[in-house]
Hints:
This protein is mainly beta. The chain has a domain at 7-183 and 280-340: Beta-galactosidase, Chain A, domain 5 (Distorted Sandwich), CATH 2.70.98.10. Helices cover 5% and strands 39% of the residues. It contains three helices and 29 strands. It has helices spanning 49-54, 224-228, 233-238, and strands spanning 7-11, 17-21, 27-33, 39-41, 62-63, 69-70, 74-77, 80-83, 92-93, 106-110, 116-125, 136-145, 149-158, 162-163, 167-168, 171-172, 186-189, 191-195, 197-198, 203-204, 209-210, 222-223, 242-247, 255-261, 268-273, 277-281, 304-309, 324-325, 331-340. The strands form eight sheets. A nine-stranded antiparallel sheet has the order 10-11-12-13-29-25-24-17-22. It has a six-stranded antiparallel sheet with strand order 16-27-26-23-18-21, with no helix packed on it. A four-stranded antiparallel sheet has the order 1-2-3-4, with no helix packed on it. A hairpin with a 5-residue loop joins strand 10 and strand 11. The chain is globular and about 60 Å long. The mean pLDDT is 97. Alpha-D-quinovopyranose (G6D) is lined by residues 58, 242, 279, 281, 285, 305, 307.
Amino acid sequence: MSIASDVFTLKNSNGVEVTFIASGGQITSIKVPNAAGEFADIVIGYDTVEQALAGDGYFGALCGRYANRIVGGQFSVDGQDYQLDINNGPNHLHGGIDGFNSRIWEVESVASDNSSKAYKLSLLSPDGDQKYPGELRIEVIYRLTEDNEFFIEYIAETTKTTIINLTSHAYFNLKGAGTGTIENHKLQINASGFTPISGEIETVTGEIIPVAGSAMDFSSSKAIGTTCNSNDEQVKLVDGIDHNFVIDDYDGSLRLAAVLSDPVSGRNLKVFTDQPGIQIYTGSHFDSSETGKLGAPIIKWAGLAMETQIFPDSPNKEHFPNAVLRPGETYKHTCVYQFGY
Ligand code: G6D
């Protein structure tokens, strides 16, 4: 039986190291080199496990049952209406007040080939848990390869028709956690469209609009600060970026979604996924009130979350990708973070 504070480490022969805890499967550090062989911890968070257990709760965590927002916490499946917890303005966010991000996941080492080291994280979410229907069995594999790829592979099955959208919530700062903001980081996203938000409902309106010509245009690599510091209406609503991008040519296969790079350290990060969307979040709610790694305050825009997912509020938007999972089906989701320089 795992306990919340159990710590697990994946390390490859290049010295790349991913550390996580059983609580929320929270990734507490990722250490990667640059071209000069200098290592940095590139996920923001805390210096100790005790702080991680008492802290924010979403840093590096597995989120569910439905990551991101559901308007009013309401949805229907098979003619049955459900009311979920409201824990974020008028909406349901990341599974509500008792999200998977703070559950104790059962962790075991799993057999892997020579070029890959892996752990399996399991969670049994009973029927009615978080007010969602169906008993949900979830397994997540964390796997680190010799090519400096960190795989997150999710599968889940249900006993009743339900909805599901799992994600991982690490915030990256390629210069190193605690060294400032990600304004100078460059971002490129393979997305020609995004789902705009409304200030009134505090999440997506249901539209999908082109990024071309807007502050959300990351089709070519661009400094994140250019967008965060702009007067764009969508940016002003959330004091940065907190938007779902519609990944081009979605067909359920694994493909490159985004590339983040830091000109100062020379490190880069490629995100691959088989999901239709990626939530890009600049950590705009951090207000320096918490002390993070290196004893530094966790400041606004300290890190960038790149959460592969189905779209926000998909259960209420028929034209968005389907988030329904039925008995006998298997939810599958792969996200790969590849570290380079
Ligand atoms: C998600 O998009 C959301 C943010 O708005 C939220 O603050 C964060 O999770 C905790 O990325």
